[in-house]
Amino acid sequence: MTAGYTVAMPDAPAPNPIDWQTEFERLTPRLICWAAFRLHGRPMADAEDLAQDVLCRAWLHRSRFTGGDCRAWVFQIARNVLLEHARRQRKVRRVQIAEGDTARADQLAQVSDHLTTMTRRIARSDDVQKLLQEAAALDDTDRRLLLLCGMEELPTREAAVVVGLGEEATAKRWYRLRQKLRETCDWFAA
Fold first, then answer.
1. In the chain, where are the structural domains located?
2. Nearest Cα to 173, choosing from 162, 165, 183, 185?
3. Cβ neighbours of residue 19 closer than 8 Å, sequence gap 6 or more
4. Rg (CA), the chain
5. Residues 154-163 pLDDT 10s
6. What one-character-per-residue DSSP string does the chain give?
């Protein structure tokens, strides 16, 4: 007869916890510029509202983040939120909270207030305003490259298809544009 024994299995390493506030602070300038580009011709307040909606959605679903590139994850949420806004033709989306879940409602209200303050502060910052001014002076192809490669981090191979240029021409053009923007927008290099 064999004696029963147990083998201790090592615990799986815990995933690195994310400091969501720091991540949101880092992503918000790009997110606001992205929203302003996508909502071209609309008031800046609409871009701020879109950015805040994206950040609220990311915060609410942060438990679904499985690791990897947080920026790509947030911008995927941003694209989905933008599509939802377009489908609703600017109807306001409210997060529905189960009846009786007042603790969660209070928590969401506090986060929403904080994100509103943060997006407004960052949207009015000199860095964001500089980038928006630089972007306004760009031709359509460069502005689309800034949006696709700079904000959404689409690979130049995929951006080339969207803008209708060859892959090598797109890569060179994006490199030159990125260098130009780094001269005036320090945070853009981050």
1. 19-90+102-124, 139-190
2. 165
3. none
4. 21
5. 899 999 999 9
6. -PPP---PPPPPPPPPPP-HHHHHHHHHHHHHHHHHHHTTTS-HHHHHHHHHHHHHHHHHTGGG--SS-HHHHHHHHHHHHHHHHHHHTSPPP-----TT-HHHHHHHHHHHHHHHHHHHHHHTSHHHHHHHHHHHTS-HHHHHHIIIIIIS---HHHHHHHHT--HHHHHHHHHHHHHHHHHH-GGGG-
Rounded Cα distance, 26 and 138, in Å: 24
CA pair distance 68, 70, nearest whole angstrom: 6
| Token pair recorded at residue 12 | 């799986």
Of 127, 26, 125, the residue nearest 71 (C-alpha): 26
Confidence of residue 16 (pLDDT cuts 50, 70, 90): low
Reading the block at residue 36, the tokens are: 């302003």
- In this predicted model, what pLDDT tens digit does every residue of 123-155 receive, in sequence order? 666 777 787 888 888 898 998 898 888 888 889
Q: pTM of the entire structure?
A: 0.60
Give dist(CA 167, CA 155) in Å, integer: 10
